[in-house]
Structures are given as C-alpha cells and as structure tokens.
Write a structure and sequence with these properties.
The complex is a heterodimer. In chain A, 35% of the residues lie in helices and 36% in strands. Chain A has a single domain, classed as Molybdopterin biosynthesis MoaE subunit (Aldehyde Oxidoreductase, domain 3), CATH 3.90.1170. By secondary structure, chain A is an alpha+beta fold. Chain B is an alpha+beta fold. Chain B has one domain: Beta-grasp domain (Ubiquitin-like (UB roll), Roll), CATH 3.10.20.30. Helices cover 26% and strands 27% of the residues of chain B. In chain B, strands 2-1-5-3-4 form a 5-stranded mixed beta sheet. In chain B, strand 3 and strand 4 form a beta hairpin. Classes of the chains: A alpha+beta, B alpha+beta. Chains A and B meet through strand 4, helix 2, helix 3 and strand 8 of A and loops of B.
Amino acid sequence: MASVVRVQIEDFDVGAELAALRLGKPEVGAIASFIGIVRDLNVVAGDAGSQVGSLTLEHYPGMTERSLEAICADASSRWSLIDLLLIHRHGTLRPTDQIVLVAASSAHRGNAFDACSFVMDYLKTQAPFWKKETTDRGERWVEARDSDDVAAARWKTEA
Amino acid sequence: MRVTVLYFAGLREALGVSRESCELPPEVATPQQVRAWLRERGGAWATALAEGRNVRAAVDQVMASVDAPLRDGAELAFFPPVTGG
C-alpha cells in the first residue's frame, strides 16, 4: 500500500492521476475519487449569498504535509487499500477551479469509497488550511462549519 | 523556556504578526497559558485571543490540546478552526 500526498499551487489532471493508479496493477478492482471545486456562491448565515470572485487558500507549510500524511496513514490502517492519493492546492483559485483530489484504489469498491469519504471528513477538521473569499462585498475568511465536525466524528464510532 | 509562536489566517491578520520568538516566564508552560500570557499585551491581543474566541493550537506541527506540555525550542501555532478541502 502506497500513499502519496502533494500540496501544490499547480492544478492537477484527474484523468492522468486515476490512470496512473491502475497502470500495471491488475489487482486494482476499484478506484473511488473525490474532487473538491471552488463554487461561485457561498451562502452563510443571515446572508442570501455573495458572488465569489476568488478564493485564497493559506496553509501551514510543514504541518500541512504531516497532517495529510497522518490522515492517509489512518485511512490505510482502517481499510484494505492498494494506493491512496491526496492532492491539495493552495494559493489563489477561482470558481470552477479544482481544490482537492482524493483517490483510493482497492480490490473492491467498499474500501475505496469509505477511505475517500474518511480522508475528506478528517481533512476538513484536521488539516491546517484556511480559505479567504474575495466577493462582490469584499474579503472574508470562510467560517468553519459545525457539520464538518459532525462528519468527522461519525468515524470515531464506525471504524 | 523559549518557543517560536506562529499565527495563521484571520488571527495573523488581526495581530499583524506571523511569527515571533518568545521567552516564556516559568509559570507559562502550555498553549492555554501562552494564550493567556499573550492576552496581557492588550489591544488586538486581548481581543483576538479572548477566552470566547475559537482558537486552535498546534505544538510542533501536530494539533494539540490546550494543556499540552511545551518544551524548550517548541514550535507553537495558534489559528482559527481550519477550512480546507
């Protein structure tokens, strides 16, 4: 089982990344993936929604890589995976841009689906990234959502 | 003990500092105690690090509880709840 973490400014090619996960690996029976994308509208409490012009992701170099690697190691210990890939971008992005890719390969779909879901839930609460939006009403830091804590907490009892 | 303290995102902006080296008094030995000690600077420090504010801490690049012990030379970071993904 190999896990690869990349934290980068550059975009990524989902097709090429998924193709690489199964290249020369006949034991791969399933690949599940998740792609996070910048939306053009962010609705927050008490607000009908602001048009997002750009999104800037700040991170904590060093801790970011360590935390993502720890999350991947945790996923690998919970599910039988062949490979696990996690790419997270930082810097300034625009609506429709890709932010994050998680892809897991395994013999059967269940492990791959669950591992992707787990990695995203943990990443949302544990990885040191912060989003700042530039909207038609100015700049603002995106607030953390309680629903992300709830999503991460479910794995404490399920696995 | 001397520690490096880092600040990120909205907290960094509110404080106007991203990184500093601090010589801590002997009685200051956990993230929570450092936070209270920094509040004594007043102004933005008292506001941004006020007790009701949701501020997270990491010690040596790992998420830490407020009462985690600090060691000399540690890297302590304060930041708002994370919003990646």
